[in-house]
Amino acid sequence: RVISAMQDSDEQAQALSQLSQALAQAHRWEEAERVISTIQDSDGQAWALGELAEALGQAHRWEEAERVISSIRQSDEQVWALAKLADTLAQSNEYERLLPLVRYWWQRVRRRDEAVCLLALAYGFLSYHSELGIAFFDAFAWVDEFLRG
Asked: pLDDT (tens digit, 0 to 9) for every residue of the chain, 149 residues total?
C-alpha cells in the first residue's frame, strides 16, 4: 500500500525493485515476479527481471531463470541476464544445459550486432574446452556471412 501510494514513479519503481530483490533473497520467486510485473517503468522492470533471473540461476533454478529471461523486453538487459546465467552454468559445470541455451539464443539472431552480443554466452565453454574456440570462430564467421546476405 505504501509503495502504491508513492507519487514519484521513479521512487515507486525503485521501491518495487527492492521489494522484489528481498522476496527473491527469501526464495519467494513467484511473489517477486508478481511485484516486478507491477513496475510501470520498462527500464526498471527489465532490470528487476534481470536481477530475478540472476538469483534464480544462482539457486540452480535454471528453467525458471530462462523463462524470466525470455520475458525481458529490452535486449541489453536480456543479453546481460543471459550472460550471467551462462557464467553460472559454466561455473556449475552444467555444460549439457549451457549448450542448448547458447544454441537457442544464437538461432534467434537476426542482426550482426545481436550475434556479437551473444558471443559472450559461449565464453564458459572456451575456458574449459579451448578446442571449441575454433569451432565457435567458424560458426560466428558463418553467421556473419549469412547475415550479410
From this structure: 556 555 667 788 888 899 999 999 999 999 999 999 999 889 999 999 999 999 999 999 999 999 999 999 998 899 899 989 999 998 898 988 988 888 888 888 777 777 777 877 877 777 767 777 777 778 778 877 877 76
Dihedral, 22, 25, 30, 33 alpha carbons, nearest 10: 50
Q: Chain centroid to CA 68: how far?
A: 8
Residue 52 near residue 91 (C-beta atoms within 8 A): no
Q: How far is CA 65 from CA 9, 16, 50, 73, 78, in A?
A: 27, 20, 9, 15, 11
3-class state of residue 29 by DSSP? helix
> DSSP letter string over 82-110?
HHHHHHHHHHTT-HHHHHHHHHHHHHT--
| Calpha distance 68→77 (Å, rounded) | 12
